[in-house]
Amino acid sequence: MGEVKFFFGPNHPGMHGNFSVHMYVEGDTVVRAKPVPGFLHRGFEKLMERRLWYQNLALVPRICVPEPDINEMCYAMGIEKLAGVEVPERAQWIRMIILELARIANHFMSFAGIGGPLGLYTGPFWGVADRDKILDIFESLTGARIYHMYIVPGGVRKDMPPKIQDMILKTLEYIESRLDDYDNIIFKNRIVHTRLKGIALLDRNTALEMGVTGIGIRATGVPYDIRKIDPYLFYDKVEFEVPVATEGDAYSRLRLKFLEIPQSIKIIKQALEKMPEGKVNVPISEGNALRFRVPKGQVYVHVEATRGEYGYFIVSDGGEKPYRVTIRGASYPQTLYGIEKYLPGTRIEDVPIWLDTMGICSPEVDR
Amino acid sequence: MTSSMNNALEKVKNAIKNVKIIEIDEREAKIEVESENTLPVLSILKGEGYFHLSLLTAVDWMEKNEFELIYILYSWNDGGKFIVSTKIDREKAEFVTVMHMWPVARFYERELHEFFGIKFAGNNDMKPLFLENWDDIPPLRKDFDPLEYSKKKFPEREYQKDIIHEAKIIRGDING
């Protein structure tokens, strides 16, 4: 049988954003695959060089659409490291709460993402609806649902009122009560078992060679998590576990996302308890906030996003604007190298499952 | 710095002269090396547990007429990271590939070729990755001016008066 060329995307229900794969198939098995990124290239790195340090705050969340807060965190952390600013304790706890809420929201979103390739649409509807409850918290706290621009260099923009603490606790309680339902509808479902178990396998050595981070590598039995190994904020002062699986298949990757939700809830509850009263931000430099200058230097900061290591390399020449900013998208290795090297051999209907459970996110790759 | 970072640095210092080490904080250090020593330094660090290539990028220092290549290596054992930096000539922007050590570097190098015009010997795949029909100098170089480019590429158009007039009628501002 001859080789046929197939196109995946640029629009596909299982993808966050526009991304295309050119597949050459024989029968229904992929022989060769070529990633075609660039549909969402918006030139962020160049734009940031031409804007003031503070102006960029409105720009950075737009880089990764499903999980914008990690961008603000990385950018703020980099500037603080360059400027040598000590962030107030309360602000650090608030940041942690925001990041973990965003993690839960993103995991719910990924239950929605897997619905398309599986043809199982109950989990997705629930996932999106429950994610909305977290977006409600963000709206009350920051005024925005998706792009918050709340974590700023030197702290957070505004203090968290006690009313919102109650709201968070109430929502967490609700999410906890829903977890059993999710377990029943998704993870005890015959369709999910048949379609995900043993599919889209990635073994440990391959994952290490590829440079895969996050859930992709934790599903192969390696407990790599930046929150544990290189703790930022106060992740070393809270108790939580990093769920690990050994199978390395699509099911275990989806399962790990589910198991991370109770851990995030645990972190948020501890943060709300341990949070002291006090200031929530300090200026990073003297004078007008828009005209802040950041001392000369280079720094690389990274955080654990839902998809893996998300990093910013920031260069300052001491001026009012960044000299150079590079963004390391968490899914960069598996999106570009992974598709070309490890998609061949997969059946056509398993391609969206591979892409979705590997956490491929095109906006952060294109930038 | 952590003890494994110190050990790795000792090994680097023993093997190669002319390395400049800048300590950024307790888990981060920058190593500046000359271009011919870069690959040996990278392979020593890789053998010492810094096997994860977090990022490969470049910085354009236009005034000094050089590109700074940045390799960020990360150790999952103790969370230490090294920023290995080397400088190459801006006019003759060429370097060697690290594909044999980190296969994923192929795409980072392809990206650097597209955005900075840096060629990597040994990496033959230099097709554009993100940009389509690009017809100017590589866009992340400092002498590229996006404003000028967009003015040239998308010339300003004068709106015809009757269109505005029509729009005002539709909006109900004036009576037609």
UniProtKB/TrEMBL annotation, chain A:
Matching Pfam families, A to Z? Complex1_49kDa (PF00346)
User: PROSITE patterns this protein is in?
Assistant: COMPLEX1_49K (PS00535)
Q: Which GO terms describe its molecular function?
A: oxidoreductase activity
All copies of the NADH-quinone oxidoreductase subunit D domain together span 118-282, 292-367
Read off the InterPro entries from this record.
Answer: NADH_Q_OxRdtase_suD, NADH_UbQ_OxRdtase_49kDa_CS, NDH1_su_D/H, NiFe-Hase_large
Keywords associated with the record: NAD, Oxidoreductase, Translocase, Transport
Enzyme class label: oxidoreductase
Q: What is its EC number?
A: 1.6.5.11
Q: Which family does it belong to?
A: Belongs to the complex I 49 kDa subunit family.
The protein in question is named: NADH-quinone oxidoreductase subunit D
Instruction: Please tell me the species this chain comes from.
Output: Thermosipho ferrireducens
Automatic annotation (TrEMBL), chain B:
According to the entry, every stretch annotated as the NADH:ubiquinone oxidoreductase 30kDa subunit domain falls at 31-147
Point out the signal peptide segment.
none
Q: Which InterPro entries match?
A: NADH_quin_OxRdtase_su_C/D-like, NADH_UbQ_OxRdtase_30kDa_su
Q: Which Gene3D superfamilies match?
A: NADH:ubiquinone oxidoreductase, 30kDa subunit
Pfam families per the UniProt record, alphabetical: Complex1_30kDa
Family according to the record: Belongs to the complex I 30 kDa subunit family.
- Which PANTHER family does the record associate with it? NADH DEHYDROGENASE [UBIQUINONE] IRON-SULFUR PROTEIN 3, MITOCHONDRIAL, NADH DEHYDROGENASE UBIQUINONE IRON-SULFUR PROTEIN 3
What protein does this entry describe?
NADH-quinone oxidoreductase subunit C
Q: Which organism is it from?
A: Thermosipho ferrireducens
- Species classification: Bacteria, Thermotogati, Thermotogota, Thermotogae, Thermotogales
